[in-house]
Write a structure and sequence with these properties.
Helices cover 29% and strands 17% of the residues. By secondary structure, the protein is an alpha/beta fold. The protein has a single domain, classed as 4-Layer Sandwich (Purple Acid Phosphatase, chain A, domain 2). The strands form 3 sheets. A 5-stranded mixed β-sheet has the order 3-2-1-11-12, with helices on one face. Strands 4-5-9-10 form a 4-stranded mixed β-sheet, covered by helices on one side. It binds manganese (II) ion.
Length: 272
């Protein structure tokens, strides 16, 4: 039995299945961890989501920004963007079943056996593990609660851009979501700059990649994340495991076996 963490799939169903064949994934014995953004950009969003849904007892999924955007569009509180490619899910007769399942998924997963923390974007520098776990749980409760459509409606926006424990209501929820699913660069005093998506060499002045700031976590704890395809890091880079290798952009999809840290990368297979 093995546990494989997989980077941003973004609707690249053929590539996902190809990678699972390469690693000899056995759903009877093995488990998958998914860093989120499982849909959108690629042309197989519905196939990915159905596959994961059918495999739900074997997977641990944390939600990414694209997954949340899909939930907002499906709930009719956000417009479909030109670049969105999840029409196939929106037209699927059993979409509600898939949405209900996605809404049950967390934004953070920590496993003490592996001493590994997985979120879509990373760990916000002003939060320790317990704080991040508790704040992720707040969002999970909002997504599962009666007012979840109202929450999805106000998810969009870059403010507030800095954590303050006195934040309340949807501002608090929006900040937690932004930090866990959209963060890339952060200022030394904890401000998020959410528009920057480029590489590590051109970070805006005064901002650093979040993982280069001092973090409130044990140095042994492994941080598994994706989201930043332009952030090209070796695996591992210290205790950081950046698994988004740009499959949605025609590059690669990555798997990391947690037991021995072996890494597999396969080329995008979508056009074959
Ligand atoms: Mn993302």
């Amino acid at each position: 039995m093995a546990t494989y963490a997989i980077g941003d799939i973004q609707g690249c169903y053929k590539t996902l299945r190809y990678l699972l064949t390469e690693i000899h994934f056995n759903p009877q014995h093995d488990r998958l961890w998914l860093v989120g953004d499982v849909i959108n950009r690629g042309m197989g969003s519905l196939a990915v989501l159905q596959y994961l849904y059918d495999l739900q007892d074997r997977i641990t999924l944390v939600l990414g920004n694209h997954d949340l955007h899909f939930l907002a569009v499906a709930a009719n509180v956000a417009p479909l963007k030109k670049t969105d490619t999840f029409h196939d899910i929106l037209e699927y007769s059993e979409m509600d079943r898939l949405c209900a399942w996605l809404r049950q998924q967390p934004l953070l997963h920590y496993d003490s056996h592996y001493d590994a923390l997985m979120t879509h974007a990373g760990l916000y520098p002003l939060w320790d593990l317990a704080t991040a776990q508790s704040l992720a749980q707040e969002v999970k409760s909002l997504l599962q609660g009666k007012e979840y459509v109202d929450f999805l409606k106000v998810l969009y926006g870059n403010q507030p851009d800095r954590w303050n424990e006195n934040l309340e209501g949807f501002d608090r929820g929006r900040f937690i979501v932004n930090a866990l699913t959209r963060m890339r660069v952060v200022s030394t005093d904890g401000r998020l700059e959410l528009d920057y998506k480029d590489d590590l060499e051109h970070c805006p002045s005064g901002y650093l990649p979040w993982f280069q700031l001092p973090l409130l976590i044990e140095p042994r704890t492994r941080l598994i994340f994706g989201h930043w395809a332009q952030c090209i890091l070796p695996i591992p880079y210290q205790n950081f495991y950046q698994l988004d290798t740009g499959c949605a952009w025609g590059r690669q999809l990555t798997a990391l076996r947690l037991e021995d840290e072996r890494v597999w990368r396969v080329e995008n297979q979508e056009s074959y």
